[in-house]
Amino acid sequence: MPSYQGTVDRFEEKLAVIKLNDGTEVLWPVKNLADEITAGSKVQITISDNLNGQKEKEAMAKTLLNEILNVTKQQQNL
Fold this sequence. Notes:
This protein is α+β, with helices and mostly antiparallel strands. The chain has 1 helix and 4 strands. The protein is elongated.
């Protein structure tokens, strides 16, 4: 997973301007920052493809729900 380090340079309305160590500027929604982040704060941005992880979690949740529902139905039949 790519990871980038930088510093919050300034805030422009609802966006934080983060200057990465390579000089690139990234606009980041303030609502997605921790409350304690201020101008000058060091940050790290990690980019990941969580699609596979999300699909696995959904499949696990579905399996668990089905097991719970099946147990409940079996108990009702007793």
